[in-house]
Q: What sequence folds into this?
């Protein structure tokens, strides 16, 4: 990867999202916690989750990841409260489509994930970008297994 490629990849917008991540405090009494790690780079995201009436009502995250993983976690954290598991799963699938198959950015409230379009070319970063979604869906599976399907957690 050249210096120019790195500059393009770690744009100011990505770094701003990474620096202003919401919900970084762990929940004091989560209904579920999940930790996901990228074997490729060692990035790790831990998510605490609570749900009410099938919607995510509380969210906390501890993110130890590269700027790309942090930016993705920032967008996920900004939009996840009030979402159903199906909405989160759909956004994850749209993100995968964007990264792998030149699909559009995920729907609102996760549209800001478009900032990660330059990461398409860097497949080794895709797992880190997906960690926040993966951890949130795993935690949701612990809370409401009947509302989620194992297909939500397919490998990237």
A:
């Amino acid at each position: 990867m050249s210096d120019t490629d790195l500059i393009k990849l770690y744009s100011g917008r990505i770094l701003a999202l990474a620096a202003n991540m919401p919900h970084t405090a762990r929940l004091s009494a989560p209904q579920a916690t999940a930790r996901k790690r990228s074997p490729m780079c060692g990035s790790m995201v831990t998510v605490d989750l609570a749900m009410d009436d099938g919607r995510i009502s509380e969210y906390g995250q501890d993110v130890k990841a590269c700027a790309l993983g942090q930016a993705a976690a920032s967008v996920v954290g900004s939009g996840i409260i009030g979402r159903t598991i199906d909405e989160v799963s759909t956004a994850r699938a749209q993100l995968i489509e964007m990264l792998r198959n030149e699909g559009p950015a995920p729907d609102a409230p996760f549209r800001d994930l478009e900032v990660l379009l330059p990461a398409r070319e860097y497949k080794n970063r895709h797992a880190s970008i997906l960690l926040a979604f993966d951890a949130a869906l795993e935690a949701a599976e612990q809370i409401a297994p009947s509302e989620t399907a194992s297909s939500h957690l397919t490998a990237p």
Q: What stands out?
A: The CA atoms of residues 134 and 153 lie 7 Å apart. Confidence is low (pLDDT under 50) at residues 148-156.
